[in-house]
Write a structure and sequence with these properties.
- This protein is of the alpha/beta class and about 850 residues long.
- Among the domains are: about 240 residues, Rossmann fold, CATH 3.40.50.10540; about 110 residues, formyl-coa transferase, domain 3; about 90 residues, formyl-coa transferase, domain 3 (2-Layer Sandwich), CATH 3.30.1540.
- Helices cover about 35% and strands about 15% of the residues.
- It has a seven-stranded mixed sheet, sandwiched between helices. A seven-stranded mixed sheet has the order 14-20-19-18-15-16-17, with helices on both faces.
- Helix 7 links the parallel strand 4 and strand 5.
- Helix 5 crosses helix 26, helix 9 packs parallel to helix 24 and helix 19 packs across helix 24.
Length: about 850
């Protein structure tokens, strides 16, 4: 059975028609208090070394699976203390290193994720309890402190204000809670792995491990949500993060296909399959590859038309191909009015043209012609990219006597509060006595608390959000805000509809219309939708009123778009300095490429993810679809929730400039660091891992059935070797296995090919070896762990009665949240918003209708 508990919650909330009673307007704040807030905000500027979270102490008891969370929180000013076992945290000993010898403190992985922290050695539970008694948040991954027992419940009992965050492969409880897992097997369990790679080879992971970065930043989001609620109640709570659920975000709702009766998605390197047709994204250049969004429909078809005109000018296609209806192309193709070969002819022509030019030449023409094109950047290209240099993005450190560039600020703030970080700490360089002397102030009184309804305990109840974002990256952020209690009002127009309303998976038996896609149902879940034709001055006036009502504005347009409507951050914050205003775009608000527009697949190319995904003997496969749209929401949320925490304490808002590319580069930090550390240019390596042998995806009985597995130490390998009938190899240590990797892979493959994936998975988990079948939508829908975690939920919808969406990827144990209804129909809540939130009367609404402002 699929979980449908969201139906009751949705019905309860949908019946509350008087939104005003639930969310008092800002004018209900007493005038003297409001005046104090505004005066404080206008005179406040953070000093260079201040941070928006500098009142908080975070204990980082994680390893490589969680340390990126502490890094992001440290950039925002938190006092992050790395808790290490006596032998030091494992990342100190993890490749790549600056020098071949792997000397002390030269691990690029350690430098990537532990800068700006302090270090305390924890050798016993008593030391941990002493530290936790004086902390705000404890981040934890199992085993990070070696043999030291960690009882999170006992630590919370001793310090009721403490927030504990557990980052685990499958969550704290459920049938898979104790399963052995690695980055690869988590990716297999999430559905992400099955979508990545060549159809004629095993599924392939991104060469730099990703799964636990998604989970770790989900943990940072959960910590800040819990701290927000603590500002109201004074109490901490436990945050339970599942890496499996977190990584499902990288499937772009495709795992809902089985729930809605749609066909499963299949992997195809360097593009996507639309029905039986491959739409190619990766094309050759003289010095590498480029990514081109060659798609169709009202939004993208005009870009494709301009592309084909250029191809014709260069003599690589005929007039008939140039003049095809690129807006209605798929309709013509699926109706049989066009031969299937036409699409292949067009993409072959594009490939023939790009193969005669360098990436720089292609990009120069593409920019002039306003095409959706990006270079498939190598790590060296990324580090040299002028946009990042112009924005002073990179943090340069001397490591082992060599200058090394590491990813810098994941976000920019107009009022400061984002720190540049120093080097990682020496092991145990801080004592418990040092920490007692330097304790941050901790919980502070609220100048601007959230005021929500008495019966809604969710952390963000009472928060008001004006959502001008679109596609995936920013809208997934506002979806999370709605899950946890915020009133999110989505601005949309008949003339500029949400792009993903036209993307699948579509509900079986429907007309494939704008209200029929599961992708929109899940991304838009819990939001209100108002329809405004923003080209009209009357609609712009309504939007300004909506901004005046809001605590938070989120927009993801090309820089300058909001200014054209008089809604840019400088304009609106001049009278509302308490407003938190978020701008999320591909390359940021400043710099020579600030105006570069594109979807997440292009951002994935320009940031190096395409180059680092696939097999070394083939062109880059790239991750599934819009990968930076999956890395961005949590970075946006960490920055936004931190800004709200700062506003709660000070009454001061900010303008956050979130460049999706800059945030995403942290997910590749160790690989990017090799460019300046070694002068090398790393590339994709298939499923090879720097630490683990064997480590791969192996075929099982059945079509496209696979098992992902890894041996993370000698004991696991010995168990695996005996299991597969190769006891003669059981005594090999890691270097020995690395020297015989082909032989070992063949032995494992011989064993898996004779077994069903589920059987092989159960056998290996039974002996403690990390293994998981590679799951697609059908398997995820019936996965007992996801059923236990209520990952797929049925929620109300005005057209379909109920629709399936994905639930939150984390749990707050004291104040749970989740989606109340499915993505709204276009303009579904226009009248409610105008009347109940903005206070418009009948005459005002009638005038807007007559002016065409509500289209």
């Amino acid at each position: 059975m699929l979980v449908d508990e969201g139906l009751d919650l949705g019905a309860q909330l949908l019946d509350r028609r008087q939104i005003r009673s639930r969310h008092p307007d800002i004018t209900s704040v007493p005038p003297d208090a409001r005046t104090l807030v505004i005066r404080r905000a206008r005179r406040h500027t953070l000093r260079k070394d201040d941070g928006v979270l500098d009142h908080l102490r975070i204990l980082d008891a994680t390893d490589d699976r969680g340390q990126i969370a502490g890094l992001f929180l440290a950039q925002l000013g938190a006092d992050v203390v790395l808790l290490e076992p006596p032998e030091g945290t494992v990342t100190r000993r993890m490749a790549p290193f600056v020098d071949a010898a792997g000397g002390p403190d030269t691990s690029l992985r350690h430098w990537s994720f532990n800068r700006g922290k302090r270090s305390v050695t924890v050798a016993d539970p008593t030391t941990l309890a002493t530290l936790a008694a004086d902390a705000d948040v404890l981040l934890h991954t199992p085993g990070a402190l070696g043999g030291v027992a960690v009882d999170l419940a006992a630590l919370r009992a001793a310090n009721p204000a403490l927030v504990t965050v557990a980052i685990t492969p499958f969550g704290d409880d459920g049938p898979k809670a104790d399963w052995a897992a690695t980055d690869l097997t988590v990716a297999a369990s999430s559905g992400q792995l099955v979508l990545t790679g060549d159809a004629d080879r095993p599924p392939v992971r991104i060469s730099e491990p990703q799964s636990f970065h998604h989970a770790a930043l989900e943990g940072a989001v959960g910590a800040l949500l819990a701290l927000t609620e603590r500002g109201r109640s004074g109490l901490g709570q436990h945050v339970d993060v599942s890496a499996q659920q977190s990584m499902t975000e990288a499937t772009q709702a495709s795992m809902l296909a089985a729930a809605v009766g749609a066909l499963p998605y299949r992997r195809t390197a360097g593009g996507i399959l639309v029905g039986p047709y491959k739409v190619r994204f990766v094309y050759p250049a003289l010095d590498g590859h480029v990514s081109i969004t060659l798609l169709f429909g009202a939004m993208i078809g005009p870009f494709t038309a301009r592309l084909m005109s250029w191809v014709h000018e260069r003599g690589f296609c005929d007039e008939a191909t140039r003049d095809l209806d690129w807006v209605g192309f798929f309709e013509l193709l699926f109706s049989g009015r066009l031969e299937a070969s036409v699409l292949q002819t067009a993409t072959d022509a594009v490939a023939a043209m790009t193969a005669t030019m360098t990436k720089a030449e292609i990009m120069a023409e593409a920019t002039a012609r306003r095409l959706l094109v990006a270079p498939v950047a190598t790590p060296a290209d990324v580090v040299a990219e002028e946009q990042f240099r112009a924005r002073d993005y990179w943090d340069r450190h001397e490591i082992g006597g060599r200058p090394v560039d590491l990813p810098g600020p994941f976000v920019r703030s107009s009022t400061g509060g984002v720190r540049r970080l120093g080097p990682p700490p020496s092991p145990g360089s801080t004592t418990t006595a040092d920490l007692r002397r330097s304790r941050p102030p901790g919980v502070a009184a609220s100048v601007r608390p959230l005021v929500g309804p008495a019966d809604d305990r969710r952390p963000l109840a009472g928060l008001r959000v004006a959502d001008f974002s679109w596609a995936i990256a920013a809208p997934m952020s506002t979806r999370v805000l709605a899950d946890w209690g915020a009133t999110v009002v989505r601005v949309e127009s008949l003339h500029r509809m949400e792009a993903i309303r036209g993307a699948g998976p579509f509900l079986a038996g429907t007309a494939l219309g704008i209200e029929d896609t599961a992708q929109w149902h899940t991304v838009g879940a819990g939001k209100f939708c108002i329809q405004l034709a923003m080209a009209r001055p009357e609609a712009q006036a309504v939007a300004r009123d909506l901004v005046a009502w809001a605590d938070v504005v989120v927009e993801s347009f090309t820089p300058g778009t909001m200014a054209g409507w008089g809604l840019d951050a400088d304009t609106v914050r001049s009278s509302r300095p308490d407003l938190v205003y978020v701008s999320s775009c591909l390359m940021g608000q400043t710099g020579p490429r600030a105006d570069y527009a594109g979807f997440g697949n292009l951002a994935g190319a320009v940031t190096g993810f395409y180059e680092l995904t696939g097999w070394p003997d083939r062109p880059p496969a790239g991750p599934f679809l819009a990968y930076t749209d999956y890395t961005s929401p949590r970075g946006t949320l960490v920055a936004l929730l931190a800004a709200l925490e700062h506003r709660r304490r000070t009454g001061i808002g900010t303008h956050l400039d979130f460049a999706q590319a800059e945030g995403a580069l942290h997910f590749l930090a160790p690989t990017l660091a090799e460019v300046t550390a070694h002068g090398t240019n790393p590339t994709r390596v298939g499923n090879v891992d720097l630490r683990f042998v064997p480590h791969g995806v192996y075929p099982c009985v059945g079509e496209d059935r696979w098992l992902a597995l890894a041996a993370t130490d000698d004991a696991q390998w010995a168990s695996l070797a005996h299991c597969i009938g190769r006891a003669d190899l059981a005594d090999l240590d890691q270097p020995g296995r690395a020297s015989r990797v082909a032989e070992i892979d063949d032995a494992v493959r011989s064993w898996t090919t004779e077994r069903e994936a589920a059987e092989a998975e159960a056998t290996l988990q039974g002996i403690g070896v990390p293994a998981h079948r590679v799951q697609n939508t059908d398997e995820l829908l019936t996965d007992p762990q996801l059923l236990h975690r209520q990952h797929f939920r049925s929620v109300p919808h005005p057209t379909h009665g109920a629709v399936w969406v994905e639930g939150p990827h984390l749990r707050l144990h004291r104040t749970p949240g989740g989606p109340a209804w499915g993505g709204p129909t276009l303009g579904q809540h226009t009248e409610e918003v105008l009347r109940d939130l903005l206070g418009y009367d009948d005459d005002r609404i009638t005038d807007l209708v007559l002016a065409g402002a509500l289209e």
